[in-house]
Amino acid sequence: MKLQDVLLKAMAEKIQWWEAAEIIGVRDRTMRRWRQRLREDGHSGLADRRKIPQPPGVYADFRPLEVR
Questions:
Q1: 12 vs 49, which has greater pLDDT?
Q2: Which of 11, 12, 41, 63 is the most buried (most CB within 10 A)?
Q3: How far apart, in whole angstroms, are the C-alpha atoms of residue 53 and residue 68?
Q4: Where does residue 26 fall: left (phi above 0), alpha (psi -120 to 50 degrees), or beta otherwise?
Q5: What b/e readout covers 26-62, taking b as 16+ CB neighbours within 10 angstroms?
Q6: Secondary structure class of 51 (helix, strand, coil)
Q7: What 3-state DSSP class applies to 21?
């Protein structure tokens, strides 16, 4: 199930918000923040709010070092 599908179900009260958090794999506190942002700003409220957003793929080439 996609993130959008889970959020739409929670907004339509088909599932509880805590259940949505479990499905998505986030903590309850994160889900409460997202719910508030959805109520205040709609879907645009879920945009990245960090001061300096990370460019996509920053860690794409990351490989753990082998310990010998």
A1: 12
A2: 11
A3: 36
A4: beta
A5: eeeeebeebbebbeeeeeeeeeeeeeeeeeeeeeeee
A6: coil
A7: helix
pLDDT surpasses 60 at 30: yes
Inter-CA distances, 67 with 35, 59, 61, 62, 63, Å: 43, 20, 18, 16, 12
Contact (CB, 8 A) for 21 and 28: yes
Would you state the structure tokens that stand for residue 21, as one six-digit string? Answer: 């958090």
Longest dimension (CA), the chain: 53
Domain ranges across the chain: 3-44
Eight-class DSSP state of 46: G
